[in-house]
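Operator note (shift B, R.M.): manual run for alanine transaminase requested after the automated queue skipped it. Running by hand, logging everything below so the morning shift can see what happened. Input copied straight from the record, untouched. If output looks odd, do not overwrite the archive copy; leave it for review.
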Amino acid sequence: CQGPGGCRGGRKDMALRCAAWLVAGRQPRCPRLPPLAREGTVRRSSAAKASAVKITEKAGREKILTLESMNPQVKAVEYAVRGPIVLKAGEIEKELRKGIKKPFTEVIKANIGDAHAMGQRPITFLRQVVALCTYPNLLDSPNFPEDAKKRARRILQGCGGNSLGSYSASQGINCIREDVASYIERRDGGVPADPDNIYLTTGASDGIATILKILVSGGGRSRTGVMIPIPQYPLYSAAISELDAIQVNYYLDEENCWALDVNELRRSLNEAKAYCNPKVLCIINPGNPTGQVQNRKCIEDVIHFAWEEKLFLLADEVYQDNVYSEGCQFHSFKKILYEMGPEYYNNVELASFHSTSKGYMGECGYRGGYMEVINLHPEIKGQLVKLLSVRLCPPVSGQAAMDIVVNPPIPGEESYSQFIKEKESVLNNLAKKAKLTEDMFNKVPGIHCNPLQGAMYAFPRIFIPSKAIEEAKAHKMAPDMFYCMKLLEETGICVVPGSGFGQREGSYHFRMTILPPVEKLKILLEKVKDFHIQFLEKYA
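Run finished. Output pasted below as returned.
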């Protein structure tokens, strides 16, 4: 039919339908043809049939990209924090919205450290500055304090066209890198920091993945080995898999509050030398998922070990503001390295990472972060900048948010009192919730939780009876995955099984954030307690 509503008048969808009907021996339903004409079309349509067969054959062609043909390194990547249990939680939420009855009314997602999603209020000053940068017309508004306007103007002057919507330099906006360097000097008691060693990143994760990418090389027994703590944050194992590097596990000492023992580092390194070239040592301090805060002596021992064994140090310090236990204090690796003297400070290669996502800010969505990299070979520095240039620049709004983390209001400025009140409120509240979680877990038979010295998670050890382990095997699940799935299905609480972070053989854990409001956290902990007792009774 040649008409505008017909299959040859531009209606490709109608042409395909007519051809398909013809192949099936059915009468086409072209809106431009009367019934008799359609019948004649059926009798005279051998060419249309052949065309439709070709269309059908084309539609059935094998896909170029399949599980068998895809990049095997990507297929090997696992990220437990957003893994199968979170997908199941999403399915349950949909069922609840449809009115399907459950033993609970909501899913509590305690699987991830997303502070604002859990109800934490944003820091007013940070949001004011980012708002002013995003919509500069607000700079004329009397509703914003002058100290916020001053920072916004400085950031905008560093942007192309005075706009947050322009690209920045690949290393980040220069004035923000200067502010990061000043922050590090203040934090570390005057230890010098060079803005040229600062790289703004898309959250800390981007910086960690970038440094690992530039470090990995070789093949066979000379392939780069990356030493990571077990338990670890799954970013590390995922990045190592993607880069086809070799994961080298060292175990934290659960019986000693998840302490890091240099003898364990040495055991791990010596065993790994038989099958790879270990040249990277990753440290998470404060720990995720384990919450330990390393003391000064431990950090000195680790630095000496890295110097002695010629290892590149990665210090993940995104929880540096999250320290709760009495007697614990955050020490940056950069500061301790400097204080150990020039033999160490001028030679140990160190990359340190920080982020807007954790601490008291909880600004996960801005994806702001930085890394400081010291003692890089000058030629490697050029290679690093080249690699960063490929992704053009980190989000400029995230860079602005990072600037407020490192350049907050100071005493004497009009926003200082409100800022410090909000900051201390968040951190004091987290400290109370850390103690509450530890105490309540340790009252439950079959659960043991080490002190939550820092960060924002509990990683309790759980006893799983042999009968439950057998049932988990029958379902082709790790025992702690089976436990966590049952917990989700019966209580609506979503936590992450310890097997997603790594743990010693025969031990079982789960990671749970302490971010929910206190009253909701108490309800959550009571539900976990009741579930665990019932679980033990059922599988005893």
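Quick read of the result: Residues 93 and 471 are 26 Å apart (CA to CA). The chain has a mean pLDDT of 89.
Leaving this for review. - R.M.
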